[in-house]
Specification:
Layout (H helix, E strand, L loop, with lengths): L3 H27 L17 E3 L21 H14 L5 H17 L8 H10 L4 E6 L3 H9 L4 E5 L1 H4 L14 E9 L4 E5 L9 E4 H7 L18 E6 L1
Antiparallel strand pairs: 1-4, 2-7, 3-4, 4-5, 5-6
Amino acid sequence: MISGKTIIVSLSCLWLLSACSVKESVQIKTQDISRQPTTIKSDGLPDKHLISTSFVPQAPEKVWDQPWQDACEEAALLTVDYYYRGVTTDIPTLLADYQKMFDFESTQSWTHDVTLTQMATISAKLLGYKTKIVEDPTIEDIKAYLAKDIPVIIPANGKILYTENKHFKSGGPWYHNLVILGYDDNKSQFTVHDVGTQFGAYFKYSYTTLMDSIHDFPDTGIKEEINDGQKQVLILLK
């Protein structure tokens, strides 16, 4: 005979399983605003769009010594590469992919801080992509790529990003890279994978802050002079 206590426990377990399933499905849905109704504006672009892809952490094992301290460039490139190839990966494979980039950079005698032009070289020679560097991009330029499901890699002044992203330590890095995945005109926000923090997946920055932050590594090689770096973004094309 099944006791009343057994019935109560069984019903509780079923309720917990149901609750967990609902929570998971809602969480997945909230990360994909591209499935929500959109309005096509006069410029021909939807008012919002989002590319959904894996988040690649800058420090996969949460170790922030070199080369991981300055591995945001490689993380941004792998984010786009994994998106185009439609793959997810485990930590050992991810570490191996990072190492291939580090090894290539070593053969070029580059420093840990890699410029956008050098990132384009990695993308072409190591990953096999065509590349395009867009100088002085506008919000509309970036949105046009995103609406075509083309992510946009930006070099940035992390001190400016810190004004809206307090997950950075020490006021944010002088030089940082991240990937823009989407936008929402209704909120005037870009959605990004900010590889530099564990809370960076689908992080949102205002149009103003993200555009102000865009600066390539300065020609002087001095991080603190980041605001003298060229305003430009990197596009990888299959």
